Amino acid sequence: MNTSSIKVLLVEDDEPMRMEFESMVLSHPRLTLAGSVATLGDASALLRHTVADVAIIDLGLHDGDGIELIKSLQQQGSRTAVLVATIFGDEAHVIRAIEAGARGYLLKDTSIDEFARAVELVHAGGAPLSPQIARHLLKRFEPAEKSSAALRPDGLTAREIDILRHISQGFTVAESARMLNISTHTVATHIKNIYSKLAVHNRVEALIQARNQGLI
What is the pTM of this model? Predict the structure, then answer.
């Protein structure tokens, strides 16, 4: 087995959808199936002896709310990054899940390329979010006090601010690279530098901090 592959756990009670996700994981060279279950109980039991890098969790499971599993992972200090499996237009549930500790979401009608990109992005510390979800989250955090550690005027380069603006509009790393005519590796490096300079750990925090700083 490829030891550098990303171990993915699926928690989905819709059997055809779960089988589709399984097929996407098994057919991708950089992904490995850590487990595939249909209930909260089975997921909790599996996680007692299985380590997953990324968990894709449906919220409306037969034996409870998937958010409870997300909260449990957070309370345990698990390094498993969570993506919510959802349908288009279900922003309210996605926001609840993100507040509980999820890093982003995955639409259930996604293509294999989009599926793999979302898993790899969240595993790398990113947050797959649509512009609509990002706007909801930014609005929710607007009353929060601004960080007392203000950036120096030259804290971010012009290129890094360009990339921040693309992120705020929901563009992926690949899309941003293509629009800026640079490599995806260069964009990823800039994003890491942005996170470091803003003292954040993911895309949502970066957008909130950048907006508080008046950078976007």
Answer: 0.62
